[in-house]
Amino acid sequence: xxxxxxxxxxxxxxxxxxxxxxxxxxxxxxxxxxxxxxxxxxxxxxxxxxxxxxxxxxxxxxxxxxxxxxxxxxxxxxxxxxxxxxxxxxx
Length: 91
Description:
With 91 residues, the chain is α/β, with parallel strands linked by helices. The protein contains three helices and three strands; from the N terminus they run αβαβαβ. The chain has a single domain (2-85), classed as Thiolase/Chalcone synthase (Peroxisomal Thiolase, Chain A, domain 1, 3-Layer(aba) Sandwich), CATH 3.40.47. The chain has helices at residues 2-11, 36-43, 61-74, and strands at residues 20-24, 52-55, 81-85. Strand 1 (20-24), helix 2 (36-43) and strand 2 form a beta-alpha-beta unit.
């Protein structure tokens, strides 16, 4: 959530203009369970109208998240997508 808040603050982007949030996460268990992309977005206090999805492609999860976001923009179906990744390996 902290990174998303800072991303919006530094970029100056209107958070309501974001059309999707796509995160990669290898192990969606414990604190990363559920849809960590959507949960992080909401925890950052950002608009609940923006959807989010978490991708699990093992070691390539974050790269796949970026690819899905880029495909949306390059195809013209989306204008602004936030993509990223997260992993907690201390479990």
